Amino acid sequence: MTAISSRPGIGAMFRTQGAQKLLAFAGLVVLLVGFSLASDRFFQTSNVIAILQAASVNGVLAIAATLIIITGGIDLSVGTLMTFCAVICGVVLTYLGLPMPIGLAAAILAGTASGLASGIFVAKLKVPPFIATLGMMLILKGLSLVISGTRPIYFNDTPGFTQIATGSIIGNFFPAVPLPNGVVILFVVAGLAAFVLGRTVLGRYAFALGSNEEALRLSGVNVDRWKIAIYALGGSIVGVAGILIASRLNSAQPALGLGYELDAIAAVVIGGTSLRGGQGTILGTVIGALIMAVLANGLRILSVAQEWQTVVTGSIIILAVYADMLRRQRAAAAA
Amino acid sequence: MFNRRALLAAASAIAILGAAPMASAQDDTLDIALISKGFQHQFWQAVNMGAERAAEELGVNVTFEGPDNETQVDRQIDMLAAALARQPDAIGFAALDSQAAIPLLQQADDAGIPVVAFDSGVESDIPVSTASTDNMAAAALAADKMAELIGGEGQVALVVHDQTSRTGIERRDGFVNQIEAEYPDIEIVTVQYGAGDHLQSTEITKSIIQANPDLKGIFGANEGSAIGVVNGVRELGAEDIVIIGYDSGAAQMEAIRDGLMAGAITQNPIGIGYETVAAAVAAINGEEVETNIDTGFFWYDAENIDDPEIAAVLYE
């Protein structure tokens, strides 16, 4: 302990907010280097793009989950809400034949409305977030099947729809970097969410809600309203994920989505956001989502048996959170 | 402290990664990536077993992956993308949604990697071959057995998993067409759909039996439907009804051993895996490959359930 305080450079580094990001980032780099050494097929443009693309949907979901986890809540409905938004988009575009912007707006609105509902259950009806969003998870799963008629809705009648996630505007200008739009959308959503968290009242209250809700209430803040706003914002971000997955698959698959909330939460905790609330960063979450995608892809490239892939992924989650706990203890002891 | 810990973590990560390629040494052995529709279900594990058998016989490396359940279309696409990046010598693919996979299959085609479809076809001419069960012929065999067991006349009914999937449609039509063409004295009173859900199929079966007191036989068109039929018949005590099932699984095999179910059609999942790898190897070597490989099916009942040939394709 004294060793750390006598080396202020390193000690300070690990005591700062950015430390976990560094830790997660270092983990990402280790994985990238390791996989690159292990297989010459790993670090190729097409594969790196495949990894980014695989991270994009989970990344956007994880960003939504981060906002809610920072308030001390949890959102189990992000996976099926994503599907619900995709289905709404499909209904508007394919069944009703309306223009594409209306379909996209409908998907995001559906997400916002659902987030609003979760927020009201949590803030006003005082249903614990775990239960409220568990209920929403099932409601949305059922509604997706009902609305779609339990069949996938294809977007063949909406030209350009698949381009939203799989096209590459950047590639048009720089053919050497055919970064898919879906990945760009992930980074844009991340930038916006980081801005909201770091630079707006909503963001400050989100952290305050997570660290001490009662103090915030006593200081005269309308806690319920801000909490509902965060859930609604989370919902609209999930709407973006719904558009991304629908565009990528050129279809809204109504049965998909269950289990995706856990992958999102895994990305959040790998990124150093505390499930107790009050702490967390969007950058960390994006790195967390990238780590999960790199792991899945790299292990596949190395032809590691699927059973073991899951074992490794689980171990990495525990390792990441353990490393974070150590850092916190150190920081607390040093402070 | 932290430096040492970080170093340790990095070292162990690299050790893990370093050990992995040893196992899959990249020598001249052919590398074939199979992407299936599922992974932990017994049916898919049986496909995997067949693939491994072929890999051993033909001296090639095979990997087998599939999403956790058959809804995860995007996960399957990610698996296909990773498999492509590995630059295998061939790909075997059982599409969950063939539309979603076409851009990647096109990529494989452009890279000169032959694709073999298995279990179900892909709506595209990219696959050099499709290894799957001839569901129409298999269901027709079920119809023949049904006719034989009820004495060529009387009422029968079908409990099918759904009316939209390819297997649902083909098994229903295979059975119905065969009865209509060959057995004029047999009447099909109803075809009902229970989503392959045990409970739902049970309720359906009970209502069919209630509505048709003279019913002589019921065909359950997949594992879940067949188990539902068995449950329904058992709950109503209508055990003189002839039940014919499809696929295997512990519950169905037990019903056959108990005599409650007359017998069932089994696909040959091991054969599907085996033929997929064999076709892939042939395609890599530039040999002629059949466009459609019928992987075969068998009738099994209490008599032959323990025959080695049958036992080998059944799964618990």
Account of the protein in words:
The complex is a heterodimer of chains A (335) and B (316). Chain A is mainly α. Helices cover 76% and strands 1% of the residues of chain A. Chain A has a two-stranded antiparallel ribbon with strand order 1-2. Helix content of chain B is 49%, strand content 19%. Residues 18-26 of chain B have low confidence and may be disordered. The chains are: A mainly alpha (335), B alpha/beta (316). The interface between A and B is large, with 56 and 44 residues.
Helical element count of chain B?
A: 11
Radius of gyration of chain A: 20 Å
Number of domains in the coordinates of chain A?
Answer: 1
Q: Helix count of chain A, per DSSP?
A: 15
SSE blueprint and pairings:
The complex is a heterodimer of chains A (335) and B (316).
Chain A: H1 2-6, H2 8-15, H3 19-38, H4 45-70, H5 78-95, H6 100-123, H7 129-148, E1 153-154, H8 163-166, H9 169-173, H10 181-199, H11 201-218, H12 223-249, E2 251-252, H13 260-270, H14 282-301, H15 306-334
Antiparallel strand pairs in A: 1-2
Helix pairs in contact in A: 3-14, 3-15, 4-10, 4-11, 4-12, 4-13, 4-14, 5-6, 5-7, 5-12, 6-7, 6-12, 10-11, 11-12, 13-14, 13-15, 14-15
Chain B: H1 2-23, E1 31-35, H2 42-58, E2 61-65, H3 73-85, E3 90-93, H4 98-110, E4 115-118, E5 129-132, H5 135-150, E6 154-160, H6 166-182, E7 186-193, H7 198-211, E8 215-220, H8 223-236, E9 242-246, H9 250-258, E10 263-267, H10 269-284, E11 292-294, E12 297-301, H11 308-311
Parallel strand pairs in B: 1-2, 1-3, 3-4, 4-5, 5-11, 6-7, 6-8, 8-9, 9-10
Antiparallel strand pairs in B: 10-12
Helix pairs in contact in B: 2-10, 3-4, 5-6, 7-8
